[in-house]
Amino acid sequence: MEMSRKLTEMTNRIDTLEQKLDANQHALHDQVVAGLGNVGGRLDELRHREDTLEATQNAHTAPAPAPVPSSPARNSVRKTVDVTTIHRAQADAPPVEHAAPRPHYTVQAGAPDIAILESPQGQPVRVQPGSMLDGWGAVTAITQSGSGWVVHTEHGTIR
């Protein structure tokens, strides 16, 4: 009889502990999901800032047009010469090639000299130094940055 009562008490304690464990797991899951959302938002913000910075730097490196004289009589003659010069320069210059946008990869996991990326199609891609990535070239290094990993390539970094 005593054993039966003790077994019942132990069963009740185990049930209570299982309920607490489930509640703690759900709370932890919610915290992890919220934290990952914050990290993802920060990464998106950093990528946007990096893209904006690159666009600004590219705009600043474009040559400025030459100033035009202010005299009306000289303007008509000068404009003709400038237009001819510009057309001649454009004919001699090689065509401007605009780089195609690089595919968007996201680092999912990493370790020294190995990383798992998510491809633009959502597929996992395993890379290591020497691996080739479309649009990014060869992987040169994989380093840790804080609690995340960074994949360095010939044409930039993937975070």
Keyword list:
single chain, alpha+beta, 2 domains, four-stranded antiparallel beta sheet, three-stranded antiparallel beta sheet, 2 helices, 7 strands, 50% helix, 22% strand, elongated
Give me the strand/helix succession.
Answer: HHEEEEEEE
User: Spans of 5+ residues with little confidence (pLDDT < 50)?
Assistant: 73-81
Q: What is the topology, as strand order, of the major beta sheet?
A: 4-5-6-7
Mean pLDDT: 78
The fraction of residues assigned to DSSP E strands is 15-25%
**Quick one: biggest sheet?**
4 strands, antiparallel
Question: Total strand count, please?
Answer: 7
Shape: elongated
Give helix % range. 40-55%
Radius of gyration (Å)? 31 Å
Distance between termini? 64 Å
The tally of domains stands at: 2
- Multimerization status: single chain
Structural class by sheet pairing and helices: alpha+beta
Q: Note the total helix count.
A: 2
